[in-house]
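FAQ: What does a ligand-bound record look like?

Like this one, built around pyridoxal-5'-phosphate:
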Amino acid sequence: MKKISENVEAVKKNINEACAKVGRRPDEIELIAVSKTFPTEMILQAYAAGLRKFGENRALEFRDKVPLLPEDIEWHFIGHLQTNKIKYIGRRAYLIHSVDSLHLAGALSEYGQKNRIEFRVLMEVNTSGEESKYGIHLQEAQDLFMQIDRLPNIHLKGLMTIGPFTEDEEAIRRAFRALKQLQQELQAKVDNRKLKVLSMGMSHDYSIAIEEGSTMVRIGTAIFGSRGR
Ligand SMILES: *Cc1c(COP(=O)(O)O)cnc(C)c1O
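The answer part, i.e. the structure of the complex:
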């Protein structure tokens, strides 16, 4: 397997190329290295290669790993979050990508008020219609957005989606376009400066996501190698 530093360079090069293709600036794209299942030594290699933004998807793993790693890492929580595990994320999550219900948003709001934490969050939307996946259905997204937006100690920064698992590039594009369109519809309803973040694109589809307007890509495999099962 290639060295992590080489993988990081390759990913950055692809980001630059995708940006060039559609006339975007590479500094519009934030790279989140998804370090779930990987040991701290590997995270430190990515850190040494210059990365400072990392993502984890399980609350207990997040709780256990974060204190072992440098303080200046910006941690992103990207997985499904159960309300009884909010306490393991607490103040160390810079951004929670995966708010997928009013129930979770309400619990975060309550926890935030009690513990004086202001949570930055994204609303996770299911843009592919695949039933097994977490995420708010597109049709419900506007309503839910307005309700979450009113909660104290919760700051909606944008939207997140996971593209469909398919080889069909058009289907992937359609999903990412749907998220971009939802962003524009919501921005028309609220303050236009809000909701800047579009978290979309993983190892197999981040170039497409960038072409379709992503501002944050979540890359695991292409940086750390395959996780196995
Ligand atoms: C694991 C994961 C990723 C990274 O996936 P790769 O295909 O390894 O790049 C991105 N987003 C979420 C929500 C994940 O759970």
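Follow-up question: can I read anything off the structure? Yes, for example: Residues 34, 36, 57, 78-79, 162, 202-204, 218-222 surround pyridoxal-5'-phosphate (CB under 6 Å).
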